[in-house]
Design a protein that fits this description.
The protein contains no helices and 10 strands. It is mostly beta strands and 191 residues long.
Length: 191
Amino acid sequence: NDLAEGMADLSPIPLEQVGRVEIIKGPASAAWGSALGGVVQILSPVLDPTQRTQVRAATSYGKWNTHQENLSLQGGVRGIGYLLATGHTSTDGFRPKSAHDGRHFIGKAERSWPENRHLGLSWGYLDGDQEDFVQFGQPVWMEHEYTTQYGQFYYQSNLHKRVETRLQVFGVSRKEEVRFIQLEDNQVVSR
């Protein structure tokens, strides 16, 4: 989350990894941590082990020199559904000093059995750099470089129609470097 702006930055999340979005409003969302106003939960896609392999390639270009290039491979083999995806996103930003350049690689594999039992593994790598213009009394330009690697192993089973159990091991490694640059009359004063 961006503390200076008071909002979450969803730009590093690759669209290939979004299966559905759930919005939970109000204080009942406290089960997800200190999110008393609500939670936006982004869930990865359900993989179909019977799906034939599909290759998707896409590119787009838009305002503010925004462009994306994505490549994904999704399908199933021997009862295991899989997804591999990579991509690049770059933009000059919609306001001065708000550029972003990022890359991602993700993978997910899942084995399913009757009675809604699933065994899965997912992993990912994100890196990029972005600029932002923030106001802390004086205008400050922020340069932010990040690298995130994550992995997850899970087993999920329904004990009863209304009781779901999930055993999950999740690990994240994040490296960040943030530089603040003081501006005066849009000129760099200090780094």
